[in-house]
Amino acid sequence: MMKSMQKALNASGAVVRVSSPDEVSKVVKFATKHHIPIAVKGAAYSTSASSSTHGGIVIDLCKLSRVIVDPESHTVTAQGGATWEDVDRAAARLRLAVVGPTTNYISVGGTALGGGYGWLTGRYGLVIDNLLSLRMVLADGRIVNASAEENPDLFWAARGAGQDFGVATELVFKAYPQSNEVFGGMLYFSLDKLPDIVDFVNGFEHQSTGNEGLFFGFDRPPLVEKTMILTILFYNGSETEAREFFQPLLSLAPTVNETEMMPYIRMNTLMNKAAKFGGRKRISGTNFTLPLDIKLLEELCQDFDKIMKTYPRVNQSALMFELLPYNEVIKVPNDATAFMNRGRYYNVASIFCWHAPEIDSKMKSLQQSMMQKIGERAGIARSPHLGDGTGLYANFVGHDASAKDLFGDGLPRLQELKLKYDPTNVFRKWHDLFDHKNVV
Fold first, then answer.
1. What burial letters (b/e) apply to 319-353, b meaning 16+ CB within 10 Å?
2. What is the pTM of this model?
3. The domain containing residue 32 runs over which residues?
């Protein structure tokens, strides 16, 4: 059995449901005094065992879920254990929106500290690009604020590698007016439509204005015993404009068409059913550039379909190419934050789902091979002029990549700050910045 999967299943020594930063501080002090490993749990979405520990203490943030919206300053303050559904609903009541992930039941802290892409990224950049400040409990139990004005070095590190520096108990985000509905939804296509879909995808960035988003890939819909092409459309504007932009896809006679106008907050629920709790799961990712080669996509389709047909109860798995416009993302210099994945390219996400423990290692191997194939044949390795980002999104790749792979030229500064703020490496479950092995 994979070590990471085993760690995810092993029981902790204690789970402490904290209700204040002071309680977090007390738990951290107790654990460090007695050399007890710590893990921090938000919404328990991680598949890399970063929110669990074998025999240690899990700090459960579920009670830290308050969200406050200030309509005058257009800011949203969320506690670290709040979910993005909590944030979306609170902001929507005042006709505002915050850049958040495309799945809304995950925690605010976990997503934001690792970077954060969402449907509004094309307009406003990453989640961390809209993070104004945060409050964090450090390894020695101190409760500190971090922003551009206060502890700016910690603020730099927190935006991209924050899980390695402490427990974020409160985060303040910039919010934006969002009074209009958006156009979105899922389309399912038969596999023979793949060339036409790839043609549209390859022209996406030349047509995009930043108001659009497009996911596409391979999936097995519920109650359907065959692989299909899933696309998810997003347009922040009128239905007329949206249908004109996506007309080449809408005219392909999709087998299923669930697109319509909807409130923005509903858009962030569409991916929820693709990653239900339960069973055994593994998330990984890589990057891709345009244009995509149809031959590669046909191979990936065959690979995915073979896995679906060969192994039992794996039909909740999916492979998705995520086109979220990067123009606002790359306006921020790569070294302005610890997030090192900025460039003229896009993310690939895969989630493999299964139930039989005896195929754990096989699922890991198959997923890693698929990500390697995409990275080598479609990623920035073939087009280095597309930016100096690492090409790896830390919230996706889990423990498939080293700290050097994830943080590139930013790693030495991160390690230096780690020695300042967490010299005994208490917070190392997410991505160990020193790549120590056997983290419990």
1. bbbbbbbbebbbebebeebbbbbbbbbbbbbbbbb
2. 0.93
3. 3-62
